[in-house]
Amino acid sequence: MIVALLAMIVANSPLSDEYLSLWNYTVSLQIGDFNLFSHHGEPMTLMTFINDALMAIFFFSVGLEIKREVLVGELSSFRQALLPILAACGGMVVPVVIYLLLIPGGGSAHNGLAIPMATDIAFSIGVLSLLGKRVPLSLKIFLTAFAVVDDIGGIIVIALFYATNLELGYLLVAVAILVMLFFANNKLNVVNKAFYIFWGIVVWYLFLQSGIHSTVAGVLVAFTIPSRPHLKIGRFIERIRENIQSFPVSEKDSIILEKEQLERLKSLESASDHVISPLQSMEDALQAPVNYFIMPLFAFANAGVVLSGGGPEIIGDVTYAVVLGLLLGKFIGIFSFTWLTVKLKIASLPEGMCWKNLAGVSMLGGIGFTVALFIANLSFGTAEPALLNQAKLGIICGTVLSGIIGYLYLKKILPKENQIDMAND
Question: Would you state the pLDDT for residue 422?
Fold first, then answer.
């Protein structure tokens, strides 16, 4: 959010022209006549490189998280997953309905109806974490689960409705490689990370040329990454014991290890790497670059709303539709669908959750920063700069208001930490 605010300041400062022209610089990675960062022969600009290449890594990270949740998390059983799935459905449907009600008829503005569907996992969990131990674990799990389902919905929308100039040849080759990766994972037990990274880049390039947005490739490749380790934990413990018992001890304590000592330590290091599955290893390795480089850079490139153009161009129907979709639509959708699910006895509220704190977490569902900005760019792009500016302003305002109101409400209704400690005693 700090980077987004900085982008708005720079976009409306004397550096505005430099800021706007920066994103038009071309980016290339060329070997002979082949340029990896090109689309139908045209080199990428810095903006398209961020949105089509770096964001593919972001969505790859999201895909790894979704797969983990489906395998061992809150989406691993149908009964566990039902409540957050239905809550997420409400959180996607109602904002779209509000958007349509505020923008009746056809026109370009209708392209943005998917913008207020998104909930940003990182920001919403971040706001909830500010309340520390006061937040019941079940509430954090519920928010994470419905935000993951929300991401799945956003990815499906991007795949289905934002495809342009479809090239079936590229798409068929990409699908064939994805099938090969699934086969390598499930039948051949290939767990080499470099193998999946190489073919993942190939699939990304093919999707880029196919007309289906390349970020979808990131998610699909993530689903092929093996979730089992090369070495089971029991065998790993045995190897540690064997190496410790037979570890050569030198007579003098030297800072330079003996050759045999070095070999034993390398064996342990290799075993440590093999006991972590590629899925978990990649998810962990991507956390820092995604959270501290890709997301801030994306925010800086995409949140720069130029406010100097005048009223109607900056604040319009799209702004109001996105703000109300995030602020009211997400809250009404998440809360009402959860309430109906419980009242119809389809599922029950987890222990520690009540209607009061559910209302607070439903408000935080309106924090739709990263994916919402991404869908706004796909919806309007450079063809509709005025509508894109309106959408960006709506996303930022809706996100900030949802975060502040949700935080203040939860701060008021959640038990104090001393009350929690007394209850535990």
Answer: 47
Q: Are residues 240 and 211 in the same domain?
A: no
Query: pLDDT tens-digit profile of 10-59?
Result: 988 899 889 989 999 988 887 777 778 787 677 888 998 998 899 999 98
Which residues, listed in sequence order, are joined to residue 35 by a DSSP beta bridge?
30
Q: What domain range includes position 363?
A: 2-229+276-415
Give 204's contacts (C-beta < 8 A, 6+ positions apart): 53, 56, 214, 217, 218, 221
- C-alpha distance from residue 327 to each of 44, 51, 99, 322, 338 (Å): 35, 26, 12, 8, 17
pTM across the whole model: 0.79
Closest CA to 403 of 129, 127, 126: 127
**Per-residue pLDDT, 254:** 63
Enumerate residues 6+ apart whose C-beta is below 8 A from 399: 1, 120, 123, 326, 366, 367, 368, 369, 372
Stretches where the chain sits below pLDDT 70 are 40, 74, 231, 233-236, 243, 245-258, 270-271, 273, 308-313, 382, 417-425
Three-state DSSP class for residue 231? coil
Parallel, antiparallel, or unpaired: how do β-strands 26-27 and 30-31 relate?
unpaired
Q: What is the pLDDT of residue 309?
A: 55
3-class DSSP state of 67? helix
* Helices and strands per DSSP (H, E), number in the chain: 21, 5
Burial class (CB in 10 A: 0-12, 13-18, 19+), 80: middle
Do 152 and 219 share a domain, yes or no? yes
In terms of DSSP H, where are the helices of 303-364? Answer: 311-314, 317-324, 330-343, 355-364
Q: Which residues contact 259 (CB under 8 A, 6 or more apart)?
A: none
Same domain, 164 and 268: no
Helix (H, G, I), strand (E, B) or coil at 44: strand
Radius of gyration from C-alpha coordinates of the chain: 24
Residues linked to residue 27 through DSSP beta bridges, in sequence order: 44
Domain count, the chain: 2
